[in-house]
Predict the structure.
Amino acid sequence: MPSITSPPEPAPRLSSSPTTGKALRNIADLPGPKRWPLLGNLPQIKPAQLHLQLGRWAREYGRYFQIRLGNRLILVVADHEAVASTLRDRPGGFRRTERLEAIGLEIGIKSGLFGVNGEVWQRQRRMVMAAFDPGHVKAYYPSLVKCAERLAGRWSRAANANTVIDLQADLMRFTVDAIAGLAFGTDVNTLESDEDIIQQHLDKIFPKLFTRMISALPYWRYFKLPSDRALDRAMVAVNAAIDGFIMTARLRLAADPARRSAPQSLLEAMVAAADAPGSGIDDDQVAGNVLTMLLAGEDTTANTLAWCIWLLHEHPGALARATAEARSVLADSAAVTLEHLSRLEYIEACMNETMRLKPVAPQLPLQALTDTAVGDVAVPAGSVVISLMRHDSVDDAFVPEGRAFKPERWLGESGLSAASAKRISMPFGAGPRMCPGRYLALQEMKMVLLTLLARFDVSFVGTADGREPAERLMFAMAPVGLQMRLTLRDSAGVRL
Ligand code: HEM
């Protein structure tokens, strides 16, 4: 069984900055919230609101502070320049945490790009990037159109029946179908079925991985709660399904060897890369990456879309401009093409603004591989550093009217150049481990927004009690309880 016990607290060994020569502070000397004996700050943290608590502490204690989770001393950094240099200092200086890798493996998640480190990461990253190149994603484009068409069908039925749409659930169906098509070359079609087999299992994995990550006590090794048993069942089912997908992909490649050089799905591309002599990739790593794509690509994209649709509805001026753009881009067209998506400048600005205000990965924990410094703080090898991704990016000192939803700022229309906005807001991370799915995610999101705005009038987006949707963190940060009501645009309209 992999060990997830904490290493002894590392002692600071650097006293001055290797780059500036200035004296460094020690993590243990930084300000931070009062803590309990043994448990540290754990009693003050609700897992689903960890990011909000860290944000409040950053406002109270400054952009560098310390917390303790059990006996683990952790540096929390909100300074965007220090965050960017930490993220760029990979793979040599920082890795994803040992705890993430160990807990993932213990749960039964095979090694995939998000969790691995060192040489294995380098090999897997090469394989995944080759599979993700924009040319490849373009080849997959017709399936994306098919998923958007089904979503439009689902929403048309809801509009005709005047029923409330569970926004998050429908967007998850769309992203699962889109990723499964891309990753497996398989049409799972959760948009038109009520079975949702893969989704039901996937939904059990992220929340558990996340709560185990920050749990002080690995109770699940001694007794299992019903949710732990449900997780075990979900992992068996998901891993068996993925093994089946790999077998089918191998059969397809054997029947048509030309597909090895022109793979039709991410899975075929990965199997072909794994089979190349000296690749160092085996079927377990291929399976691990198929699951990684599903997990990393489902909630992130669906949650960002849900936040964007809500923010647009809250800002009628922005909604009107985005709607006008969607309808004019599609004015005389019978079907959406990639070229249409590339013309959605304002809609892209809305997505960037959404990800600045509502980054679905609001914090990124990393672990130092060597004695190093983050800003003016000495970070001994082995220390965990949590980067806060939404602090400077919503602060008026860096972004004028930082808390306001103003998509036009991404088009250089309101005081801040898009280039500086991008340096401060990093929703896809930064450096060599930046999200490889970002191009696909942007295409998916544009496709859904185009479908929504060109075909429907949005009559309501909000929560049942009329309050602002709460933010819930389950690895990815999601809005709670968003509902939507649509009416069909009455013009014979645009076909997608
Ligand atoms: C709006 C949608 C998305 C957001 C906001 C997002 C965000 C992120 C972030 C913040 C990271 C960590 C980057 C870092 O450490 O610097 C990441 C990594 C990753 N993402 Fe995404 N992501 C999205 C969609 C996707 C999609 C659609 C896929 C795949 C289908 C994907 C696959 C991955 C993988 C495999 C990694 C790990 C990369 C590595 O460690 O080398 N993501 N993503």
Observations:
- The pocket of protoporphyrin IX containing FE is lined by residues 87, 113-114, 125, 179, 292-293, 296-297, 300-301, 304, 360-361, 364, 427-431, 433-437, 440-441 (CB under 6 Å).
- Residues 1-6, 491-496 have pLDDT under 50 and may be disordered.
- The longest strand covers residues 456-462.
